[in-house]
Amino acid sequence: MKKVMFLCAALTLFSSQGLAGDVTVTISEKTVNEFIAAIGPIKGSGKKRGIKYTWKVKKAEIDFEPGSAQFIALVDLKAGPFKTSNTVKSKVIVTYDSESNKIKMKVEKAIYKIYIKILGKKIKVGEVDIAKYYKPKFEFNGPEPVQSVVEVATGKNKVRIIKVTTTNSQLTIEKDRIRTSVDLVYSGSDKP
Asked: The pTM is what?
């Protein structure tokens, strides 16, 4: 009895969160950030105004909040005897392409401006677009069924062909996750 009540409460909570559609795919912030971590260290170097510098992304992640996604990277800089760490933030564009059934995430420009202080004066020695190092774009499969046509035997030498199509696709960005849903439409005909 307790299990049934828990299940009913969980289904009510799930429904009350505005979950729409017959099929839903949820992608957690955790898995996206584990993917980013697997990319490994991103670093580079340069020289400007006679000053050599190196930079390294110490930590990068995507933060999902209701209605938006943001890329955040902590970057360490070393220029001669100078060391500093700064945060770079950028918008992430999240889309669902129903034609290809792909959920896509693209980090917009994430410019890290490289400054050093000499005698109390801030000098710009370069800039790096951190976003260009996070390619290819992050993509996941969406909620479409694997089969678009199903053949079902309905009697001796009789086969019914069921076509499955989708409609009403929706993508929402929520706290710590992305949700994409579609409604399924079925149409049947006898196989000739």
From this structure: 0.77
